[in-house]
Amino acid sequence: MTTDRHDQPRPETTGSPGGTGPHPRPAPRTGVWLVGARGSVATTAAAGWAAVTAGLHPPTGMVTETAPFAGCGLPSLADLVVGGHDTSDCPLPKRAEALAEGGVLPHGLPAAVHAELAAVDAAIRPGGPQPGDGRTDEELIDAFAADLDAFTAGRGLDRTVVVNVATTEPAPAPGGDRLPPSALYAAAALRAGCPYVNFTPSAGLHHPALADAAARSGLPHAGRDGKTGQTLLRSVLAPMFLHRALRVRAWSGTNLLGGGDGAALADPAAAAAKNAGKARALADTLGSVPEGEVHIDDVPALGDWKTAWDHIAFDGFLGTRMVLQTIWQGCDSALAAPLVLDLARLTAAAHAAGLSGPLPELAFFFKDPDPGAAPDLPGQWRDLLSLADRLREGA
Predict the structure, then answer these.
(1) Taking each helix axis from N to C terminus, what angle separates 377-394 and 230-243, rounded to the nearest 10 degrees?
(2) pTM for this structure?
(3) Domain 30-226+334-394 CATH class label
(4) Distance in angstroms (rounded) separating the CA atoms of residues 145 and 127
(5) Where in this protein does the record put region Disordered (predicted)?
(6) Are residues 182 and 129 in contact, defined by beta-carbon separation less than 8 angstroms?
(7) Who is most buried in 24, 76, 199, 280, counting CB within 10 A?
(8) Domain spanning 230-331 has what CATH number?
């Protein structure tokens, strides 16, 4: 692939051959602004978006590319424009090469989509706050919002959806006088009039200081913490025990992972923020959290790969004690990236349809979804299909 999709002119879609008929405007373009744009998830999403758009790979794992979402008014993959914020200065093509060496991206893909990755990299702005940055929260929010405004206006976009895929933060301390970085970016999204998705367990738009601004904004938003592996499986298994009237006595888990997430989650405060969503998936379905804990161990040698074990102790008829054990081995970046693209497209369509406020119908994608969401995966899938129907009616 050798062309820069971001800057090439957009031909009009229809019009009479003789030039006397109407000439509709080009298809609307949608920005996808990734906070943490040079991280593993964002790099995989950008490379995958370019590869699928070019027909180099099928859209495996992308829910929005399946039949139930046809005709919903979703922006096409070809009409997405990607940019973002990051504190890293490693060029995106180089990050993609490193992911290919680790087996996350197919061999040869970074070279095949080098032009597209370079165009995305050119749209990435410096994030913050960096060590020694003396700007106030208001100054940082203004700067981030200005970046969003410039991206949207400079590329002629109809709207830009901000998706947080940055490294997990510790939960903010009560009474702190500064917003955490995730909340600064979320506040900037509101200020720039951008729908917002939090794919991480960090505070983001859930910070109490942003509650009023979010309610006044009239913008759709969704989150938090993408459901990609262990919790996805829990949201399937927990209803099975509930509906079969089997009493779960204990549910313990262990995660072994490396990469940036492994290093970040070695911090007990960050791990606690991550585990809160895992516990909620059980509590919402079973009515309480069973005995047992989830442990997260940083194993740098694993890179972007993760192994998750679950040990479930339950009682059957006449108190017969039984055990179910599961092992999940996968690549978080490859599991998360298609969901990031799905969420950006669905949230953009919701914004275009005039929807505002939290989108509990997107709970299918999250460990810790917005209030009003169904607790189980089948119920969340039905709600997602209902949202698709609403979008289709307004498309």
Answers:
(1) 110
(2) 0.87
(3) alpha beta
(4) 11
(5) 1-30
(6) no
(7) 199
(8) 3.30.360.10
